[in-house]
Design brief:
- The chain has 187 residues and is mostly helical.
- Strand 1 and strand 2 form a beta hairpin.
- Helix 1 packs across helix 2, helix 2 runs antiparallel to helix 3 and helix 3 crosses helix 5.
- It is built from 7 helices and 2 strands; from the N terminus they run αααααββαα.
- It binds zinc ion (ZN) (2 copies).
- One zinc ion binds next to loops.
């Protein structure tokens, strides 16, 4: 979550009764995970100046389109609202933290509230979704051992250039990229 959002949250708390309504859920010591996820989603939509009909995912898409249309540089993902799938775990952790501060977290298991346990201890769950749809993840990178010049290269086959995401060529060491060593486009 972006740091400057803390200030935004405080001003929303003062200005929006809808936001204060959601905050009550985080204050309550008997909220369900469902209540918290729902309230967190609504609160974040308000923080990002969305409308009551927006979801975080629809708002993220809207903001992305606005930025693509108005910016000359690429859109920084961190400037967009979080996805619902990521915000959900954030909201659960916020709830757990609030209850901790209030001394009423004794009954709450961190595993149910946005944390997972691994060897190093508890780590925050970031999201329940892959970074892109499965079919897209499969086509946007290759793992060629050769120079990506044949259609066995999944990038070339889908008519897209190799990129940093490619396993071996990294988008620089193959023939399927606009940039060769002299920075000249390659046909
Ligand atoms: Zn390749
Ligand atoms: Zn590739």
């Amino acid at each position: 979550m972006q740091y400057e959002l803390q200030g935004t949250s405080l001003s929303k708390f003062k200005a929006s009764s809808m936001f204060r309504e959601q905050a009550k859920v985080f204050h309550s010591n008997s909220a369900s995970t469902h209540d918290v996820i729902d309230a967190g989603e609504k609160a974040l939509v308000l923080v990002y100046n969305g409308m009551s009909t927006d979801t975080l995912d629809s708002l993220r898409h809207k903001r992305f389109c606005e930025k693509v249309a108005s910016k000359t540089s690429h859109v920084k993902p961190q400037s967009l609202p979080p996805t619902s799938a990521a915000a959900k775990y954030h909201s659960l952790r916020v709830y757990l933290q609030v209850q901790e501060w209030k001394g009423s977290a004794a009954e709450l298991n961190p595993i149910d509230w946005g944390w997972q346990e691994c060897e190093e201890g508890f780590v925050p769950l970031q999201t329940s979704l892959p970074p892109a749809p499965e079919h897209l993840l499969r086509v946007i990178r290759c793992n060629c051992q050769t120079d990506c010049s044949t259609l066995r290269c999944s990038c070339k086959k889908h008519n897209i250039e190799c990129t940093l995401a490619c396993g071996n060529c990294k988008g620089t060491g193959c023939t399927n990229t606009s940039y060769d060593n002299d920075n000249e486009p390659v046909e």
